[in-house]
Specification:
- The chain is an alpha/beta fold.
- It is built from 19 helices and 32 strands.
- α1 packs across α2, α5 crosses α6 and α13 packs across α14.
- It binds adenosine-5'-monophosphate-propyl ester.
- Adenosine-5'-monophosphate-propyl ester binds next to α11, β20, β26 and β27.
Length: 628
């Protein structure tokens, strides 16, 4: 057993003492009386009775020792602006926004939805919410109005904070207009909308509802808003994620457990210390952005870089130039970004002084060996694959150099992270599997501190979705296939459900199908994820038309394909747009009417579709093949 495995073992077998020690890394205003309440598993309450606050741990706590250290460095290659905020300045900004929210009547437990691009005000808004005990729900800026409306309806926010627009690769997206449309579709319109006007896209403020951020900011210039101390289990945020159904799940996170998990992971997984600089290229709309752009680095007393831009503008060296300029110690990105860079001039990897950089962490999708090798050799730095989910909030599997340097294996996110009792389980029998046997990757409850505590407003769905799929055992299913080898290195082998991963973005095929089905000409559809060299997967849609006669009309299917793409764009956002939409007269289904997705994927990827004894109409699969 290596040191990482021994550390893990202790976290499971000497759990309470282990987490008591880890919990010392955060400030507790009131000490907890119990490490874990597991009387109602799979619901777990960590650090019962303890009071703390995420904003205090991320900001206030550093005012004594690091007031003048940069806390947040914003770099935008979209609008060519930069801005640095020291911990003292961050404190002031966050307090001003907290005061703004309070002035709108936002208090503990109220929801605030944040629909913003990668700008500092988005970070201030998140921290301001948790400061006053309000629950934020950040919605990824790449999502469009229908996605947004669903989330507004579920979270019922009192206030929404947005910006006029964002920009990606030079293309401006009018956030405020998309939000207005979403609010018009929603049953729970917010009382107020606070708009950061960047001057990127003109908009009409709604009188009586919309407020200008800059005006409020001046009004609350020197405001100080005392921290609201929260019981450890009080929700900090809700972050929506896709699953098998069309309705996204609001992943709810606690306060104390999350603070401890992040503080601990900053040291043990990311091997960092206060004063370091952290660059994470994710987006605040995703879990990686929540944990490792905003909360983790700040709770760890580090400098975090908020980057608005793509990895290839002005050229493919931009990320490395940031590492050089800001002496980045730890970098976190996604395999997609690296695959994009692979297509760029390779000498850009050698052009900058990367001596400050200790390691590059990658997560969000499988890290293929060619990409891992290319970047490891190009940078001459350790590449640390880590595997986790929106639900868990921090890595489930990872190399953990803060504990010990153990060699990595290509294609493997190494070992279970302490606190996660990870198993590979046979989906039929529910039994634990041994080395080199493929099964469902599952976690024996309790989930560790920092993991989701429930689905917002739906405890039953939490239990049904995650803890009821393995026969005879109440264990958390990750919905990923996995195995471990004879040295106990783990490997991830793809999703067991209909979730797909496009360029590191997690999407539900059901949501895309529902959008396609909104087209007047479509009777039904099936969306699958097909392997793609650059994006990992792309969505491909197959639609059955209400009027099959259209298939014979010249140009009709091309027109319909582009109409459907536009529709998905408008409803869900460009990331959900299928790469192709093809038309068939029937979908391959079982006799009980279930679409045979795995067979469709196999045919699309040129593989053998496997066992087809249950298929109702074998010609349906032929049609899929022909349509491509
Ligand atoms: O299928 C796994 C894949 O991404 C899913 C979770 O996506 P999301 O909720 O967006 O959270 C991302 C947090 C990093 C997982 O169920 N996934 C994530 N990391 C990896 C991965 N697949 C393979 N290797 C990884 N390192």
């Amino acid at each position: 057993m290596n040191a990482v495995q021994a550390f893990h073992r202790r976290s499971i077998h000497d759990r309470d003492q282990f987490w008591r020690e880890e919990s010392a890394q955060v400030h507790w205003e009131t000490p907890f009386s119990q490490i874990l309440d597991e009387s109602k598993l799979p619901f777990a309450k960590w650090f019962v009775g303890g009071k703390t606050n995420l904003c205090f741990n991320a900001v206030d706590r550093w005012l004594d020792s690091r007031a003048d250290q940069p806390a947040l460095i914003w770099v935008s290659t979209e609008v060519n602006q930069e801005q640095t905020y020291t911990y003292r300045q961050l404190y002031q900004e966050v307090n001003a926004v907290a005061a703004m929210l309070r002035a709108q009547g936002v208090g503990q437990g109220d929801r605030v939805l944040i629909y913003m691009p990668m700008i500092p005000a988005a970070v201030f808004a998140m921290l301001a919410c948790v400061r006053i005990g309000a629950i934020h729900s950040v919605v990824f800026g790449g999502f469009a109005s229908v996605n947004l409306a669903q989330r507004i309806d579920d979270a019922a926010p009192k206030v929404i904070v947005c910006a006029d627009a964002g920009s990606r690769g030079g293309k401006v997206t009018p956030y405020k207009n998309l939000l207005d449309k979403a609010i018009s579709l929603s049953e729970h319109p917010p009382e107020k909308v606070i708009v950061v006007d960047r001057g990127l896209f003109a908009f009409e403020p709604v009188v009586g509802r919309d407020l200008d951020y800059a005006t409020l900011r001046t009004q609350f210039n020197d405001a100080i808003v005392p921290v609201t101390w929260l019981e450890s289990s009080a929700p900090s945020y809700v972050l929506y994620t896709s699953g098998t159904t069309g309705k996204p799940k609001g992943v709810q996170r606690d306060t104390g457990g999350y603070a401890v998990a992040l503080a601990s992971s900053m040291q043990r997984i990311f091997n960092g210390k206060p004063g370091d600089t952290f660059l994470c290229t994710s987006d605040i709309g995703w879990v990686v952005g929540h944990s490792y752009i905003v909360y983790g680095p700040l709770i760890g007393g580090q400098t975090t870089i908020l980057y608005e831009g793509t990895p290839v503008r002005p050229d493919g060296g931009i990320l490395w130039s940031l590492v050089e300029r800001f002496k980045v110690n730890t970098m976190f990105s996604a395999p997609t970004a690296i695959r994009v860079l692979k297509k760029q001039d390779e000498t850009l990897l050698k052009k900058y002084d990367l001596s400050s950089l200790r390691a590059l962490y990658m997560a969000g999708e499988p890290l293929d060996e060619p990409t891992a090798k290319w970047i490891a050799e190009g940078l001459g730095k350790p590449i640390i694959d880590n595997y986790w989910q929106t639900e868990t909030g921090w890595p489930i599997l990872a190399g953990q150099p803060g504990i010990a340097n153990v060699p990595t294996k290509f294609g493997s996110p190494s070992f279970p992270v302490y606190g996660f009792d990870v198993r590979v389980i046979d989906e039929q029998t529910g039994q634990d599997l041994g080395p080199n046997q493929k099964g469902v990757l599952a976690i024996v409850p309790p989930l560790p501190p920092g993991a989701m505590t429930t689905i917002w407003g739906d405890d039953a769905r939490f239990v049904d979705t995650y803890f009821s799929t393995i026969p005879g055992r109440q264990v958390y299913s990750t919905f990923d296939w996995g195995l471990f080898d004879e040295d106990r290195y783990f490997f991830i082998l793809g999703r067991t459900d209909d979730v797909i991963n496009v360029a590191g973005h997690r999407l539900g095929t059901r949501e895309i199908e529902e959008s396609i089905n909104c087209h007047a000409a479509v009777a039904e559809s099936a969306v699958v994820g097909i392997a793609d060299q650059l994006k990992g997967q792309v969505a491909v849609g197959f639609a059955v038309l209400k009027d099959p006669g259209l298939l014979d009309v010249a140009g009709a299917t091309q027109r319909l394909e582009s109409e459907i793409m536009k529709l998905v764009d408008e409803q869900l956002g460009a990331i959900a747009r299928p790469a192709r939409v093809r038309f068939v007269t029937t979908l391959p289904k079982t006799r009980s009417g279930k679409v045979l997705r795995r067979a469709i994927v196999a045919v699309c990827e040129g593989r053998d579709p496997g066992d087809l004894t249950t298929i109702e109409d074998p010609t349906a699969l032929e049609q899929i093949k022909d349509s491509l």
